[in-house]
Amino acid sequence: MIKVSEYNKFLSYKKNKLFFEDLPLINLGEKFNTPLFCYSVSQIEHNLEELHNAFKKVKPLICYALKANFNSNIIKILTKRGCGIDVVSNGELQKSLKIGVDNKKIVFSGVGKTSKEIEIAIKKNIKQINVESIEELDEITSICKKINKTINICLRVNPDINAQTHEKISTGRSEDKFGISDKRVFEIFKKYQTNKFVKIIGLSIHIGSQIELIEPFYKAFKKIKLQILKLKKKGFKVSSLDLGGGVGIKYNDKNKILDIKSYARIIDELFSDLDLEIIIEPGRYLVGSSGIILSRVIRTKSGNNKDFVIIDAGMDNLIRPALYGAEHKILPVKKKNQTNLNVYDIVGPICESSDVFIKKMKIHRLKAEDLIVICSTGAYGSCMASKYNLREPAKEIFIKKKKIILSDN
Ligand SMILES: Cc1ncc(COP(=O)(O)O)c(C=O)c1O
Fold first, then answer.
1. Atom of ligand 1 nearest to the CA of 283
2. What is the Cα–Cα distance from 94 to 58, expressed in whole angstroms?
3. Interatomic CA distance for residues 125 and 6, integer angstroms
4. Pick from 347, 364, 353, 341: which is nearest to 301 by CA?
5. Cα 224 from Cα 217, distance rounded (Å)
6. CA separation (Å) from 125 to 31, 121, 129?
7. What confidence score (pLDDT) does residue 176 get?
8. Which CATH class is domain 41-287?
9. SS3 of residue 123 by DSSP
10. How far does residue 105's CA lie from ligand 1's centre (Å)?
11. Location of each CATH 3.20.20.10 domain in the chain
């Protein structure tokens, strides 16, 4: 028995028809071209509320990691409810400012900020830059001098902790390109102690994404706490700590999900007595579960020893399966007779063998024009879409109860 609400609380079967919020997905399939990204506004609101409520002592500033999904509607939904934004490029910064995000709630992260991007961010008086290297810090200092402005800095520390997530989204091991060795932190604080332009106010950390276990978070947070205590003991003022993002979500029946309460509990336990502003930068957790892709079967195909279902969504819409071997839950929009089951590889139409969503999926027999849904596509879906094979880009719509909100993205 599939518990579809585990993927999205606003996804449910009623009389064998799949509903999203209060709309039958069959109707959306008639009204719109597929593939179609659909987002549940209620699910985004729910995710944010659940995260807020999980904290009992610390009240973190939640800076949504815009890289997860840069759709304007998402920025509006989250910032209206008090969130800041974590940006990693001038494009993301400009988009946030244009929508009206408070510049004092914008954090600029990223390992390869250009000097032009740094200068713009400083001129826009953003909250802080999270710096990834000594070389970057030197460059920021020269830019500040040149334009006679100051900026708050958090040093992104690489704690050399394995997040035990997918190799390609692990960022906190010493061999990863991110962050500054924790061995250099003290020397940098000392060097910049009296600098007129660059004010080092704290540390930041981000050990990876789609983290399903609490232990790596605990180890990394404990390490950074010790670092802060040492800095304070040596007389340095540390007023800010950015703990990054990384909380994993449910993609399929096999993956574990992290209990958000235990994540918040360790932050409460470790940092509530340190007199720090705590920032977190969740991306996937806030929006991942909110999105689905509605897709249509183009045709089925009998191979030599297996059957395929070729759908109209492909790796140009959702690259996660091809890039990370990710398996997203797939559901039929209309549930049919469960006695007539078949085993299929569900594949996209793109001319790449890696354009496969699921291998060996057991489902009732499918035919051309049947609609299916790919779950958990709200994060790192549309924002990673490509023009590969020059197909028409998929539209994005937002749904709240029965209302459809069209999106220009
Ligand atoms: C610096 C930083 N912060 C936050 C995030 C958001 O991560 P997630 O979407 O896993 O919460 C990322 C993404 O990897 C990141 O690089």
1. 9
2. 30
3. 41
4. 347
5. 11
6. 44, 7, 10
7. 82
8. alpha beta
9. helix
10. 16
11. 41-287
Residue nearest to ligand 1 atom 4, measured at CA: 245
Please say whether the beta carbons of 35 and 257 come within 8 A.
no
Length of the chain: 409
The two tokens of residue 356 are 């496969």
Active site residues: 351
- At position 390, the amino acid (one-letter code) is L
| pTM summary value | 0.97
Interval 340-391: pLDDT, tens? 899 999 999 999 999 999 999 999 999 999 999 999 999 999 999 999 999 9
Question: How would you label 79-117 residue by residue, b for 16+ Cβ within 10 Å and e otherwise?
Answer: beeebbbbbbbbebbebbbeeebeeebbbbbbbebeeeb
What distance in Å separates the CA atoms of residue 234 and residue 253, rounded to the nearest whole number? 49
Q: Which fold has domain 4-40+289-406?
A: Lyase, Ornithine Decarboxylase; Chain A, domain 1 (2.40.37)
* Tokens standing for residue 293: 């892709």
Are 46 and 256 spatial neighbours (Cβ–Cβ below 8 Å)? Answer: no
- As a whole number of Å, the end-to-end CA separation of the chain is 36
209 Cα to the center of ligand 1, angstroms: 6
Q: Could you tell which of 85, 86, 164 is best to mutate to test the pocket of ligand 1, judged by most ligand atoms within 8 Å of the CB?
A: 86
Read off the tokens for 26: 């069959």
Q: pLDDT of 62-72, one tens digit each?
A: 999 999 999 99
Does 291 sit in the ligand 1 pocket, CB within 6 Å?
no
CB 328 within 8 A of CB 315: no
Strand 23-24 relative to strand 17-20: parallel, antiparallel, unpaired?
Answer: antiparallel
Residue 284 Cα to ligand 1 midpoint, Å, equals: 8
Q: Residue 209 CA: which ligand 1 atom is closest?
A: 10
For residue 91, give the amino acid letter. G
- What are the residues whose beta carbons fall under 8 Å from the beta carbon of 24, sequence distance 6 or more? 14, 17, 18
Query: Given pLDDT bands bounded at 50, 70 and 90, which one contains residue 172?
Result: confident
Pocket test for ligand 1, best of 106, 209, 213 (most atoms within 8 A of CB): 209
Boundaries of CATH 2.40.37.10 in the chain?
A: 4-40+289-406
